[in-house]
């Protein structure tokens, strides 16, 4: 095998085929000693206990499609143009990241380097997520131990908030809503929005995370569960508690309060409630735990996950 063939094989082998939209390292908080978790399928009511690596994934979920200059300009005008520095620079960074990927992909196709083009198409966003997902165990530990010194470091808090919003927007449910909203508007918006969800979610998440961090009202704090009922999670693990359903399941956001179970015993809430102090743990009673579990059930797309 030539050196070039070895490189091509490494590229092909490096492509992740079953790409998770809820990370395995996150879901491991709900597994038993054999790495199984309880999974309920809302569509038929069936309950089963799969291995953690076999849930919350789709084949090539993060596959990207090269965007046209017109689409990149649309994303700029819709989500970046009205921003102020330093946020504007951060958002432009995502646009440049994906446009450079497209340029390199086009070059690889031109010189018929299919292995590299295939890697760029299927693996770029998967690799982006894998970098940030690597910090989940660290975040979980410092939430469970209520480490004020860790969370007083601005970068730690900023990275975590960005992650929460990314997890909120990255799922199939939210991807479907993005596509559905574009179709409802129709016309040029629908046409230009086609296949832009990969770039959009990073821009949206960065905008929202920045607004949360800069807001004097939004606070983040742990919810502690010492009841006999464990927190559950789902294929939509971050939910907007303030969301309400209208008509046939149409979601209307009246406010923002993000709930994210981190383990069966600890969750976090990002909320503007004045009665709470930032990073001060709140101990929940049975009624409150039942309420948050119900919210997770209702806002899941299909699968609900529990500790066996």
Q: Structural class of the secondary elements?
A: alpha+beta
How far do the termini sit from each other?
Answer: 48 Å
Major beta-sheet overview: 5 strands, mixed
Strand order of the largest sheet: 7-10-11-5-12
Count helical runs: 12
| Estimated share of beta-strand residues | 15-25%
- What helical percentage do the residues reach? 40-55%
| Overall spatial form | globular
Return residue spans where pLDDT drops below 50 for at least 5 consecutive residues.
Answer: 244-254
Instruction: List the secondary-structure elements in sequence, H or E.
Output: HEHEEEHHHHHHHHHEEEEEEEEHE
Question: What attributes characterize this protein structure?
Answer:
single chain, 308 residues, alpha+beta, 2 domains, five-stranded mixed β-sheet, four-stranded antiparallel β-sheet, 13 strands, 16% strand, globular
Structural features, described:
The chain is α+β, with helices and mostly antiparallel strands and 308 residues long. The chain has two domains: 1-21 and 58-214, no CATH class; 34-55 and 218-308, no CATH class. It has twelve helices and 13 strands. It has helices spanning 3-14, 24-27, 69-79, 87-110, 114-133, 136-144, 148-151, 154-169, 172-185, 187-193, 197-214, 286-299; strands at residues 18-20, 38-41, 47-48, 57-59, 219-225, 233-234, 239-240, 243-246, 250-253, 258-261, 266-271, 282-284, 303-306. The protein has a five-stranded mixed β-sheet with strand order 7-10-11-5-12. It has a four-stranded antiparallel β-sheet with strand order 3-2-13-6, covered by helices on one side. A two-stranded antiparallel sheet has the order 1-4. Strand 10 (258-261) and strand 11 (266-271) form a beta hairpin. The chain is globular, with a radius of gyration of 20 Å.
């Amino acid at each position: 095998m030539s050196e070039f063939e070895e490189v091509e094989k490494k590229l092909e082998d490096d492509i992740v085929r079953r790409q998770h939209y809820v990370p395995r390292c996150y879901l491991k908080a709900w597994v038993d000693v054999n790495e199984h978790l309880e999974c309920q399928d809302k569509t038929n009511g069936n309950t089963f206990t799969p291995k953690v690596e076999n849930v919350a994934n789709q084949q090539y979920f993060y596959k990207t499609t090269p965007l046209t200059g017109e689409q990149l300009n649309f994303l700029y005008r819709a989500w970046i143009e009205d921003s102020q520095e330093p946020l504007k620079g951060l958002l432009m960074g995502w646009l440049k990241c994906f446009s450079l990927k497209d340029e390199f992909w086009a070059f690889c196709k031109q010189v018929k380097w299919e292995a590299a083009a295939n890697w760029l198409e299927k693996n770029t966003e998967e690799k982006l997520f894998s970098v940030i997902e690597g910090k989940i165990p660290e975040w979980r530990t410092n939430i469970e131990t209520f480490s004020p010194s860790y969370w007083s470091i601005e970068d730690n808090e900023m990275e975590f908030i960005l992650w929460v919003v990314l997890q909120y927007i990255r799922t199939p449910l939210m991807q479907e809503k993005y596509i559905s909203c574009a179709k409802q508007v129709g016309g040029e918006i629908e046409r230009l929005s086609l296949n832009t969800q990969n770039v959009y979610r990073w821009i949206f998440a960065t905008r929202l995370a920045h607004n949360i961090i800069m807001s004097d009202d939004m606070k983040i704090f742990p919810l502690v569960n010492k009841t006999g009922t464990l927190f559950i999670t789902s294929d939509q693990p971050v939910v907007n508690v303030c969301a309400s359903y209208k008509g046939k399941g149409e979601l209307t956001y009246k406010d923002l309060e993000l709930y994210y179970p981190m383990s069966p015993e600890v969750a976090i809430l990002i909320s503007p409630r004045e009665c709470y102090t930032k990073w001060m743990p709140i101990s929940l009673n049975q009624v409150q735990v039942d309420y948050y579990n119900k919210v997770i059930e209702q806002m899941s797309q299909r699968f609900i996950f529990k500790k066996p």
